[in-house]
Hints:
GO cellular component, one term: U6 snRNP
Radius of gyration: 39 Å
Strand content: 5-15%
Largest sheet: 5 strands, antiparallel
GO biological process, one term: mRNA processing
Main location: nucleus
Organism: Triangularia verruculosa
Region (Disordered): 518-598, 848-875, 943-1070
Amino acid sequence: MASPVGEDNWVDFVDHQLREATDLEARVRVIESFNDAVSAEPGSIKVWMAYCEYFWSLYNDCQPVSDAGWSPDEQEVGRAIFTLDAALNLWQKGYEAVQYRLSDSNELWDRWISLEMELLRRTVTEAGVRRITHLFRNRLTVPHATWDRTSQMFSSFLSEYNRQAYESEMEQVTRSAKNAKRLYALRDPFETKLSLAVKSGDAAAVRVEMLEYIDWEIKQHKGKRDALDNFKICLGLFSRALTGVLASDDTTWLNFITLVSTSHSDLKANRSRISANLVPNMLDILRRAVHHIPWSGPVWARYILAAEEAALTFADVERIKHAATNSPQLDRDGMTGVLDMYSAWCGYLKRTAMNPKASEEAVDVAEVGLSSALEDVKHWGQRKYGENYQGDPDYRLEKILIQFLTEKKEDIEGARAIWDELSQIPLHANSYDFWLNWYLWEMVVFTAHRAKLRSPTPNTQAQGLVVPSLATRVFTRALKVRTLDWPERILQVYIKHCNDYELAETLREAHDTIYKTRKGVEKRREREARQAAEAAQQQAAAAQQHAASVEKNEDVPMMDASGSTSPGSKRKREPTPAEDDAANKRPRSETNGEDVKRDREHNTVFLCNLPADATQTKIKQFFRDYGHINNIDLKKASDDAVALVEFRHSDDARAALIRDGKPFGERIIQVTPAIDCTLFVTNYPPDADEEYLRNLFKSHGEIHSIRFPSLKENAKRRFCYLTFRERASAEAALKLDGKALGGRYKLVVKISDPAHKQHRQGAQEEERELHVVNIPRSMKEDEVGGHFGKAGRVVSVRIPHPGTAFVVMGTREEAQEGIKMLDKAMFGQNPIKVELSVPRGMKKKSVTAWGAEGDGGGGGEAGSPGSTAESIVSDGPAKDRKVVILGIPDTMNEARVGNLLKPAGEFVKLTLHTRHGGAIVEYRDAAAAGKAGLVIAGMEVESSSGDSQKLRVGTTEELFQSKGDKKVAGSDPSAHPEPEKKKKLPTAAQLMPPPPSINRPQVLGRGRPKVGMGAPGLARMNGVGSAGGGSAGDGQKKSNADFRSLFLGGGNNEAGKVEEKKTEENGSKE
């Protein structure tokens, strides 16, 4: 019978056993089962509680005064087995196993100390008081959730049993417990969030909070301060996770295994201050892990490796391998787990046989075992996938066997036969990497055996040269494969090899082969590009046909997690990021008029293990022969750095992989492709910033960067590109797709792939939706539909508010006919305006009202609800209540800017000008605006390029003259240079000097100067001469103080009003 797995199953198993235990022998077997249970789940408080309670009941049942129904003989034997000391020692052992479970260890402690105090009440002794005092002291130095209650219990205990030592004991405990309280205070926010998630009953939320807690705790363990306590608490947290909601989570088990393995390595290297007896045994942990996650090949592989490191016998290691192959869940996730386990097993056989002290028997066992493993995997794959199974893409087992035959058996022909067999499988034959590995092996063999055999192949001798002809033949065979994924790379290495090693005749033949092959490859690439274009056209045509077949195609509002419409949208529609992406994904400065789409996701590589002093210039020099570099995203740590390098073309990125394993300074760096490492993330809360997103995704792997789009062309875009360091992390993060956030948003997470970008669909995008203005307010939808039926088929009519309607026609042509026929025509008693509907999301400015229902006046969006200034109660002139902020990155939306400005005080309106890199913030009075200006000046934000920049407080004139951040986030100016703008030449009117002012005499009977074209006050205020009519481009612009002095200094009152109105209009033009 298989052993139970998990604390609940163990408790149920033992509970069933103890209910049937009617004699002493059966009860002893129950105790043995409990021992097995705590061995399998050593950190389970549920198992320990059940064990200790049962043992305590046996102690009571075997007493003479017990009425449990035991026979006298059983009671006598039981008193010898189930003694009081054994029972109390078991309670203590259980407590020591779970004491660092901060949230629930009090359950076992409270029960244990209550039994101890009950025994003391029966017989009060000085030794008993000292024992319990000692227990309390130890408990209060351990951080736990109920520390205050434990302290109160200790206080009551001293008051009753040791009053004279009360003050000294409490003073000593308070002093010694400071560290425990501090350690718990650091973890209290995580404990609180975890507790709330548990109470909500949301298992997914519990998992997220626990994973976040574990990640934080692991980082604390890496620090030097409180290393011992942090390690104990970390083990306690893993005990909670692996006996609870994460008991079957692969990532959590691997994190735990890595933590313990690293601790053992630190102990061996004398780098750890942790006692060796505190670090769990690796074999015990791995034995538990394979029971909980038997489908995990990496865990089985580590189990075999740990057994080899612990010097277990061959029979013991083989027993682990058989346990893995006998598990019905090993191939639950495909052949990955099977291959991982067999790779570890074959690696063990190879290392055992290649040991210089290995016996002939070990060598024979390895030879047979490696061949058998290959056959087993082949049969396993065919049993699961049939004849379609082509083996391990990385041919790991074959590599191990090739190494064994080459180095140990010196069977070169046998090893070459394996390479040849692999080349017959399309999975490997189509991979340039396979052929390069075969070529490298041939060159290693050639070099190693040159002296002894002159050549490992039939040698071609001329002019005294020995050449690796079989290595050359690898390339000729590879180039015969018409479906090779990267023939360009093979051609490149082929010609270099022939130049270095081959004779002139072979080199000439290589040139001929390369020339002919290159022509075929060019035709193949053209054919592939043509097929891709045709497929894209067919897909677009199918999408249009599908849209046309839909009888009623209305715009859909953004839905929240519960399926209801999110509030706050006038037309009940919020443009999705995918729509914004299709229309405005790339700023003009980035496209530069080119038809070629920029494809970051397929043109980038990761450069790892860089030295900390690496710079972008050095990286460009490192790749100078491999194509143009668009951008380098360099992240530096204390002792190393990682760079994400974007090339202009995907071929350049693939060629750059050749630099993998090459020296960079004093380090050997790693170059890996960054394909499928980037996620397209959208529909998160509007105020979510980079920190929010990092916390949301960090449990799935290391995040390299988060790139937000520019909002210059569209202020309503809300999506980002999140890049992980590893592809597996990005795939794991796809689990968050559909996650509910804040009760209103349903997160969207997809692998970013520009080639499969979904373009906007719907009536508005197909130019079938008409925007109709000035219809009679009493008109109903059916009446509007009947009126527009003259132009064609009407799909739907929507009247969001009286006077305005949106009419969806059947086709684009019918919509154009409707504009031609009905625009400016009479509808009832009103002339109506008919035009194509434009997405409201295409906003270059965003206005948000805070603390009031309206927007608060000028600068608001036309037609937005509550856009009148009367809706905000404010004191003083508007200009005195406004603060103009400069230096806001174009990737920040109004919600994030609003949160950033909260420390500066409450404001009533925020107008964000993304194209100018700033905002105008209106406060309730001038005093609040002045205080806010002082706080805002000097605030630091992260720019679109990733650097830190400070906010500045300026004037409206400075804001509208500013062009904002000219650098597009994540781009290189040299990749897509922005064309120079031609300077605008002044007009003839601007070049003409202003005419002389005319002094008109005052007209009798009037008390003020005459207002006219020649009035000096108005001419000076407007900067326009009486006859020129030109722009005042030459004159110096007036400030508000200048206008006020002109107005108060006897100038024309009407002119002042006109100019004040014009100034406000200019200020809100953007």
